[in-house]
Amino acid sequence: MAELSSGDDSGGKKGSKKVRSKKQNSKVDLTAMVDLAFLLITFFMLTTSLSKPQSMDLGLPDKEEDTTKRVDIKVDQKRTMTIILGDNDKVTWFHGLVEAPEPGGKPTDATYGKDGIRKEILKRVKSVEEYCKTRPNNKKGDGLIVIIKPTKKSNYRNLVDILDEMAICSVPTYAIVNEFSDPEKALADKLNQ
Amino acid sequence: MAKLKMSKKSTSIDMTAMCDVAFLLLTFFILTATAKVPEPLPVDTPSSTVQTKLPENDLAMLTVGKKKVFFGVKGREVRIRTLELMGEMHNVKFTDAEKKEFALIDEFGVPIEALKQIIAMKGADRNKEGLQPGIPYDSINNQLKDWIYTARQANIDVAQKELNFAIKGDALEEYPQIKRVMDILQDQKINSFNLVTGLRAKPKTN
User: Fold this and answer.
1) B14 to chain A: which residues are within 8 Å by CB?
2) What does the alpha-carbon distance between residue A132 and residue B40 come to, in Å, rounded to a whole number?
């Protein structure tokens, strides 16, 4: 867009050839146009970068069809925290075993989010890491193991929320398990009532 | 004196260059922006704080919502090859024109027997809500499994790469439904996949 010759430039210095007819100011006020252009730029910039969907990586263990080949791996009960997801966004958790929970880890109902289950997870991420360090045969990376058990009535958002909590709290190991032991089943039924 | 001079100066600045730049950028963003196509099965994805983006290529998307499953693959050649393999498997013949039209469909959710009718429709009619019943994935007629299998095969044929899978689930979808889809993927030894989520601001952990 070249500069249109305006009255100031042509008429000022070098005298004048065609004076009167060119005196009219041909400058257009571009302010409104620039405003609009930048508004649209902002809009397109934001929409293009935000429209790409986020995604969460999820790795599941191999499925072994043959039940005889399944190997049960025993883990220290002091390291496991089980979270059961119920309907209506209810959630309950315990540390250790249901029958014999760790101190302060009795089955408790909680809510999702910052003031609910996240506090408990964070607390245990720390305490279990400390505990693992005191064990004689400690391997690097050992820490809390969270077992996520979604009941049939829980929804997809609950699952994503709890997986998100795992990422936020940087839980070293977590797994989604679909089998319930009898006491856990009783707990889940109580939750879903 | 000084005050007089100040008032003489014109306050309007030359905006031509700024205008040029602004419109250049505007043109760039308009051209690079991908138009959002209407989805046949709109879902409300749950949000998470995870920042990883979904891959652009070699991706198959499984949309789960209202107990239906829709399927879609990225890349036109992959789509055509998938349709060919799927047609062979289920003895449905597709013409070249139909294949071409199918390559433009992002996502669909019909049994393979009804796919021809969907291909014959116009784009706007195709995406009407409730029109497509979802891909059958029960144990008697598990076409979803076949689609997943053929799409993987097609992606290897076309791009020589393993296909990634993303599950886009509705936030209120019940867990057993999602579990069923994950099981179908795991039956084919696909143990790693993406869950599509919306964006949520990252909270402070401390």
Assistant:
1) 3
2) 50
For residue B152, tell me if it sits in a domain: yes
Domain count, chain B: 1
A175 touches chain B (CB under 8 A): no
Nearest to B146 by CA among B202, B205, B90: B90
Q: Is the ipTM of this complex over 0.90?
A: no
A59 vs B16, B23, B191: nearest CB: B191
Closest chain A residue by Cα to residue B167 = A55
Is any Cβ of chain A less than 8 angstroms from the Cβ of B77? no
Q: Which fold has domain A76-191?
A: Nucleotidyltransferase; domain 5 (3.30.420)
Residues ≥6 apart with Cβ < 8 Å to A47: B33
8 Å CB contact of B175 and A154: yes
Residue B157: domain span: 47-199
Q: Does B192 touch chain A (CB under 8 A)?
A: yes
Q: Has residue B29 been placed in a domain?
A: no
- Residue at B23 is within a domain: no
Print pLDDT tens along chain A (193 aa).
Answer: 454 544 444 444 444 455 556 566 777 788 888 889 899 888 888 777 666 677 788 887 777 666 665 566 677 777 888 888 888 888 888 888 877 777 777 788 888 877 888 888 888 888 888 887 777 777 777 788 888 888 888 888 888 888 888 888 888 888 888 888 888 888 888 877 7
pTM over 0.80: no
Query: Hey, what amino acid is at B187?
Result: D
| CB neighbour class for B185 (10 Å; exposed up to 12, middle 13-18, buried from 19) | buried
